[in-house]
Amino acid sequence: MFDLQGFAHLLLSGSVMTIELALTSLFIGLIFGLLGATAKLSKIWIFRKLATIYTSTMRGIPELLLVLFLYYGGSIILMSVMERFGYHEYIEISPFIAGVAALSLAFGAYATEVFRMAIQEIPNGQWEAAQAVGMRPMQIYFRIIIPQVWRLALPGLGNLFLVLLKDTALVSVVGLHDIMYYASRGAQATQEPFTFYMAAAVIYLGLTVVVTGVMLWLEWRANPAERYGKRLRKQMNKGVQPPANTI
């Protein structure tokens, strides 16, 4: 019933490719975002300027154009560079690499602002207290600030990842064998576009539900105080008095 005239296993294969593309882009994009936020808050003006140019440029270019530019323009740039070393063969960038590069750059630009706001939410007193006990700036950043940043940034990053997951469909225009690629091929082969695009929509919706559930769990895990408070309120509602040292 759900064989979709032989295309069901291809859509499943495309789903795996979509997940791989989204997770890889997420990992690299988080690095870009954290570096961009650090640069924007840096005391060195050139770092701040470069980060501003990066975020303004990436947020101003549609992701589809970015994918096309990196896929076609990247090959041209690579061939121009390699010709200087005597290599004259055609170089083609894979759709997966072009997609990861484009989506990571776009995600990182938006994540930069999420991380920046999260870092600024942390009181300056924590920096001063850490410096008072002799911690170096890098130690403060990675041992005191970053662990708190994740808790504050998780809701915003979760929303950005949902957008990233849907933007993976754009990479099908350069031949990546993802969900939309196989849905389009199935629609053309069977002349039933509604069926295949509806199947693609259901798959994307299912992935979105799973990601939303994971993000809610991560937010719950990142906030132990809220977990303890809920457990304490449940105990009090049942008539169980909390330990004296918790009041």
What does this structure look like?
The chain is mostly helical. It has a single domain (about 5-245), classed as Orthogonal Bundle (MetI-like fold). Helix content is about 80%, strand content about 0%. The chain has helices at about 10-40, 45-60, 65-85, 95-120, 125-130, 135-165, 180-190, 195-220, 225-235.
Mean pLDDT: 87
CATH superfamily placement:
MetI-like
CATH class wording: Mainly Alpha
What's the domain count? 1
The percent range for strand residues is: under 5%
Distance between the termini: 60 Å
Comma- or semicolon-separated keywords:
single chain, 247 residues, mainly alpha, MetI-like fold, 9 helices, flat
In short:
Helix content is 78%, strand content 0%.
Chain-wise SSE layout:
Elements lengths: L7 H33 L4 H16 L2 H21 L11 H27 L2 H9 L4 H31 L11 H12 L2 H29 L2 H14 L10
Helix pairs in contact: 1-2, 1-4, 1-7, 2-4, 3-4, 4-6, 5-6, 6-8, 7-8
